[in-house]
């Protein structure tokens, strides 16, 4: 469980940083020199998700969604300087609980 959490956090940082590079270029008028680093960051994100212990990619991606939402709010606060409000935090907590249920719920063996 610790490894999975670490992979998800690293993937979230890589994805958000990569996407923010494009945002900064297109919406904030920053240099296009951000784009190669952004693309490498997005490739790292995709690779990191392959490290998650899950029998199905879709389940790993669905569970990651909750972590992505929480990490996006941390980015909002730490990088963009906008403090999340209580509704952001409540919504994020619900998503993290849902992600944990998706990833760690006991399942019947395949084919049963």
UniProtKB/TrEMBL annotation:
Record's subcellular location: Cell membrane
Bilayer topology: Multi-pass membrane protein
UniProt xrefs under Pfam families: UPF0060
Main location: membrane
The entry's keywords: Cell membrane, Membrane, Transmembrane, Transmembrane helix
Residue spans crossing the bilayer: 7-26, 32-52, 59-77, 89-106
Similarity field: Belongs to the UPF0060 family.
Name assigned to this protein: YnfA family protein
Species this protein is from: Lysobacter panacisoli
């Amino acid at each position: 469980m610790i490894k999975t959490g670490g992979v998800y956090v690293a993937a979230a940082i890589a994805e958000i940083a990569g996407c923010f590079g494009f945002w900064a270029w297109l919406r904030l008028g920053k240099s296009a020199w951000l784009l190669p680093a952004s693309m490498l960051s997005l490739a790292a994100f995709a690779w990191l998700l392959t490290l998650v212990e899950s029998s199905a990619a879709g389940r790993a991606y669905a569970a990651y969604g909750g972590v992505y939402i929480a990490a996006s709010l941390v980015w909002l606060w730490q990088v963009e300087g906008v403090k999340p409000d209580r509704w952001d935090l409540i919504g994020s907590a619900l998503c993290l609980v849902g992600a944990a249920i998706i990833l760690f719920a006991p399942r019947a063996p395949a084919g049963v």
